[in-house]
Here is the input.
Amino acid sequence: MKETYRFQHKHILGIEQLSVADIFNILDTANSFKEISNRPIKKVPTLKGKTIINFFFEPSTRTRLSFEIAAKRMSADTFNIAASTSSAKKGETLIDTARNLEAMAPDIIILRHGSSGAPGLLARHIDASIINAGDGTHEHPSQALLDIMTVREHKGAIEGLKIAIIGDIAHSRVAHSDILGFSKLGAEVRVAGPATFMPPHLDTLGAQVFDSVEEAITDVDVVMALRIQQERQNDPLIPSLREYAQFYGINKSLLQHARPDVLIMHPGPINRGVEMNPDVADGKGSVILEQVTNGVAVRMALLYLVMGQEGGRGRS
Here is the structure.
């Protein structure tokens, strides 16, 4: 007798932990929640009585707000804490802060932190479910899932697609998660950018490195541009933003090498005129705002699934 699939994860720490079945289950669940955002009353009682804390050590607009909206649309009690207003500012360790939060019995802590591995550290020390909202240069799983959802809505399937990711690969947790996610689902992932933005051993993640943007985007189905993560660089790694825009910025001329129905993506925030020209960001094939819309549905799905679907808990 075939065993019935059940989502087994208590924590969402990265795409690396998820199987192909897990990813498709999350996407299908997100798709079922998407219509809630179009209702006159955008609320369901799914997580009523649950307590969710957004704990963000770094600035965020889309991720923090979409997690908050996702939780409130499912009737959870939601609280936001920024590092600048927490006891971390007074020297309290991350684990001590989290243990104090746990003493107030939250069900889920959504953590964004500048140090890679911080969500995993909390998951080993406290009982609440931890969802990684971006940790250092490691992973940003919910962003990758909403990217995959957006592409699947337009292309029907991921397997066999060619995806080009252009820009600051080395410092981008989005790039890491997207490479893992799209590769797991059978896409060909290409990357390009300045040599100083290319980390070693990208092939072990499933990506092909190209020397030029033109080569990387030739005949691709999706082009994703990344922001230069200047806040993660101790020293400038490129001569100037103007030179970067000239050689690596996505413009209409470059897109002539991609497929006619190419999708244009960006995880945000966009530095217009640097990694992407405005006429590309707002032009034909751009699904950047659809990514934001899908972010709410994906995060609703993650909250629902880590709570064990019926309000309980996953097992791992």
In short: The radius of gyration is 19 Å.
